[in-house]
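Re: that backbone. Tokens:
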């Protein structure tokens, strides 16, 4: 935090954000473990872990929404993101009975809706982080804006690569692979930024 930022009193509740952003960090870790348990390789090797991963991911998503609601007083973006988390969790619960029938029209439609809602939720979350950091750490605030652009870029790359793979398989597969790696990197960077964010608020509140 530079001198100019420390001389100006933040307009947000720093202790509140220090507490709950730290919890967000651990919830992301739990969610990452849950997604690993539901990955194709793990599911094929130990099917029972897939169901455990589903339940764990739903619980983590709902808890994430609760935490975002806790800090919604500091940015309305958090409230919108929390609502998206709750909807995503409900959709995930509804998907459990038809999770084995992934090729049905209903399953595909629900997945598409879930992806769109999740993307909207991510947008509002990133913008919320950027908002609350503006008076505390402008550099980290700007990084959340940039991360959103990378998130959208990798998402569009996945879609574009998949469509292109039908016409030019090799190029399409390369784009999909690059976008997949990009998505993984964005996920890791998000975890790092949340961690840094909690530390920034923690240090600021201790001053």
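Recovered sequence:
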């Amino acid at each position: 935090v530079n001198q100019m930022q420390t001389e100006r009193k933040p307009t947000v509740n720093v202790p509140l954000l220090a507490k709950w952003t730290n919890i967000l960090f651990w919830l992301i870790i739990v969610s990452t473990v849950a997604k690993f348990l539901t990955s194709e390789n793990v599911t094929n090797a130990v099917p029972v872990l897939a169901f455990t991963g589903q339940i764990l991911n739903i619980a983590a998503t709902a808890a994430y929404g609760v935490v975002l609601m806790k800090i919604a007083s500091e940015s309305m973006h958090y409230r919108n993101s929390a609502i998206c988390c709750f909807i995503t969790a409900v959709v995930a619960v509804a998907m459990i009975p038809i999770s084995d029938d992934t090729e049905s029209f209903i399953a595909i439609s629900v997945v598409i809706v879930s992806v769109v809602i999740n993307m909207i939720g991510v947008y509002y979350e990133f913008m919320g982080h950027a908002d609350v950091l503006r008076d505390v750490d402008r550099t980290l605030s700007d990084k959340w804006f940039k991360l959103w652009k990378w998130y959208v870029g990798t998402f569009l790359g996945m879609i574009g690569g998949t469509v292109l793979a039908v016409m030019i398989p090799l190029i399409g597969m390369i784009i999909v692979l690059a976008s997949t790696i990009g998505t993984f990197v964005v996920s890791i960077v998000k975890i790092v930024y949340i961690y840094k964010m909690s530390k920034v608020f923690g240090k600021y509140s201790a001053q």
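The chain is about 85% helix and 0% strand. The radius of gyration is 19 Å.
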